[in-house]
Amino acid sequence: MNTKKCISALSIAMYFCWLTLSLSSCSDILDKNPTDAISDATFWTDENDAKLALVGCYRFQTGWSHDSFDTPQGLLYLDFAGGNGTEKENFTTLMASSNTVATNGNIRWFWGNAYVQIAKYNTFLDNIDKCKMDETKKKQWTSEVKCLRAYFFYNLAFYFKDVPMPLTTLNVDEANTIKQTSQADVYSQVESDLKTAIEVLPEKYSGSDFGRITKGAALTMLGRVYLARNDYQDAATAFKQVMDLGIYSIDNSNGANSYEKLFQIGGENSSEMIFSIMGIKDKFTNSRYQYLYPEALGGWHQFAPYNELVKAYFCTDGKSIETSSVYNENDPYANRDPRLYATVFLPPLGTYPGTKFAGVTYNCFAGANTADSYNKFTLFNGYCPKKGADPSVTNNLGSTYTYTPIMRYAEVLLSYLEALNESSPSSVTQEILDRTINQIRSRVMLPAIKKEDVATQDLLRQAVRKERRAELALEGLRYFDVLRWGTAEQELNHTFTGVKLSNDPAASNYRGSGSSASPVDKDMYYQFENRTWSKNNRYWPIPQNDMNINKNLIQNEGYN
Description:
The chain is mainly alpha-helical. The protein has a domain at 280-401. It is 41% helix and 7% strand. A hairpin with a 2-residue loop joins strand 5 (356-357) and strand 6. The radius of gyration is 24 Å and the shape is globular.
């Protein structure tokens, strides 16, 4: 591989990305070729150049780029914005509440990083035809890049509504005057690009090509777009096509630990993974562990899952905590869904799996201001994310190889079942249940759902929604779900809670006394954050900085 060419290709792509978002008016630089690097005029010549540029297209945001639809912390922000948790600097709450404003820096990160990626893809698409290479391969690579672009376009349209949709590289003046395209038209463009790609993409890659966009990834993306616009019949068709490929399966390769292992190092090779963002070994670009890990394990404990998520997990008999005979309010973390123990660090208040990790007992009750103390920070609550944590990783958290799952087969199965139930509820048979939701429950040893238990469309709808929350927690889909279901207003307007506390001074989880006592609800769970959400929060505001530059942009309703 010609390293100089590789670096130059990436530089060209990022150069144009910068131009797209630049606030500079110095457009004359567009007329000058770089003097110290290969330019557009000299780079795009052959298949090797095209391949190097394609590699650059798979370079996603990493490290401290923070919020994006393709970073582990960005996906956690989306998940927690949907009511699964909070973040100790209040980012997730301010992104999705009555306090959300157009100057919110995190929202601008999502917006800006998406357009950085889109500009890179447009640079590739504008230039690939200059390369002398096999036409079949050129068509395939073009389809891959259009799929990558589609991923960011549909996310922008879903969360911001009407957005600019540049399909070619823009100069500064064009970028600063571009108008918004309607959400419907963005979805239509995405649908068209994905359908075209599906016809030419391979079912799988191997060797050095592993990790690239496949037919299954494009179909899953298409299914998400259909869910976003409540087109359930087409969604069911798309997800069924993924299932019929016959190359994905629920991963049970590690027995009782299969679910937890799926998100640890090596999980990207699972039969369940459809598309993942790959990490880079030994580069300080992978902030996932740094953000995730408790302080006691060297991390920042940046996120705090809500007790409302913890309560949503089933008991070992497959029932909710409200209906299960094995649930004990005095020992609330015992006899629970194994996915809870794989997803959340829980306080050591009883006998249940997972209280010790990498030889360290997670303890949020060691005393005020100690590592991981439930009240050390305003938005600490005693819980800490665990999903994705790997016991082999105990140091160099920021430079340890990791990966970020974007699409996996469990999502496809649940999405297919949901779409089929919404479009043709009479078509849902016991066989369908066994092929979808029951495969997922079987992996974590939960009883199968019987057709008679979900005899009505609404009963099955609620079962699917509960299963999605438990199965897909911390994977960035929760806010997507509550928005498209229209349940955000109900889910995000109340006081959220943390770990269970006690009035007993001798108890390790003693809440304190008098004015210093931690507030609790009627069940003794720590009350620490009140959230409000209104209907105008359905869409994020167009970032104010971009509104100031581009006078053609129209702000979403409800934002100044």
